Amino acid sequence: MTSGRLPPCVKNVTDRTSNPFGLRPPFDRSDPDDRTAVFGYGDANADFHVVGDYPGVHGGETTGVPFTETEDGLAVQDVVREVGFASGPRNELALENCFWSYVHMCSLPNGRRPTDEEYAELERFFDAELRAINAHILLPVGARATDRVLREYTTQRHRFDLDMAALHARDIRGRGFLVVPIQEPVEWTDGDREAIVSKIEALLASDYRQTKGVATTVG
User: Fold this and answer.
1) Is residue 3 part of a domain?
2) pTM of the prediction?
3) Segment Disordered: which positions (predicted)?
4) For residues 191 and 120, what is the distance between their CA atoms, to the nearest angstrom?
């Protein structure tokens, strides 16, 4: 995939764990020892898609793997391990039925946050990957990822204040997806970790596979 345009059809490539669709970031503003970008990672046929914010907060600038290195990233990884999606070393793990990616995949210098313009520049890459994975359950982590997913993949963003404590582990029906937001782990209080683990386990125990465009769970 070139940096200037997206192909008309992105094929599902199952033999590549990292960057299965060959995305190429449109810019490199990373520090010298960091990866240019932290690409999507995991099972390209997954039913569960965990969406983080950017490498500086959720990790991967040196490993190239989302949800590594940082406190928030490792807390999300531990939840994914507990529900049985992940195994192996923390920085090079195997994912089954789960895919990880970031709204803003590029690394940035000196730990700074992406600007609104930088987020906008990468929107088309994130959208292409999310639609190619075509998961049933979207799990956005933190306010930025949750806002993006609710705005673009549901018709319900106007119904909610972006109160992540209230949205944490809550079912929100989308356009072909069920959205379950996750509050930033650094902000978790008693019971928050257990709540998201229990929610994912309940989904796994149900018939969560949805009719696209209806987004319902049965069971």
Assistant:
1) no
2) 0.88
3) 1-32
4) 35
Encoded tokens for 134: 């075509």
pLDDT digits (tens, 9 = 90+) for 38-92: 999 999 999 999 999 999 999 999 999 999 999 999 999 999 999 999 999 999 9
Please give the residue range of the domain that contains residue 176: 41-205
Query: How many folded domains does the chain comprise?
Result: 1
**Mind listing the pLDDT tens digit for each residue in 135-178?**
999 999 999 999 999 999 998 888 898 999 999 999 999 888 99
Residue 120 resides in a domain? yes
pLDDT averaged over the chain? 89
Cα-Cα-Cα-Cα dihedral of 197, 152, 95, 209, to 10°? 70
* DSSP, residue by residue, 116-166: HHHHHHHHHHHHHHHHHH--SEEEEBHHHHHHHHHHHH-S-GGG----HHH
For 173, phi and psi rounded to 5 degrees? -80, 135
Which CATH number characterizes residue 84's domain?
Answer: 3.40.470.10
- Expressed in angstroms, the distance from the first to the final Cα of the chain is 40
Q: Quick one: residue 106, left, alpha or beta (phi over 0 = left, psi -120 to 50 = alpha)?
A: beta
- Is residue 185 one of the residues assigned to a domain? yes
Does 162 reside within a domain?
yes
Q: How far apart are CA 12 and CA 67, in angstroms?
A: 22
